[in-house]
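Please, structure for the following, as tokens.
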Amino acid sequence: MKNKLITEVATVQTTQSNMVSLPEPIASILKVKTGDTLYIVDVNGDTVRLFTKNSNFYKQLEAAQEAMDADAEALKLLAK
């Protein structure tokens, strides 16, 4: 029996990169269509997270970036 927790995708070599085609069930989960932009973040060196701009995760990262930008000097001082 096939494991339904894991979806396998293959990469395709292009001139300057590897490309991945999302199976329709995964595209549906992400609510993406052709031409949409996806974002990838490295979670811990061997795991990545794939998300859209409309996701809660993107919004959290955006808020964190705005906070870091607003308090850049304070963060530099704290990092010393």
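The chain has three helices and four strands. Helices lie at 24-30, 56-70, 72-79.
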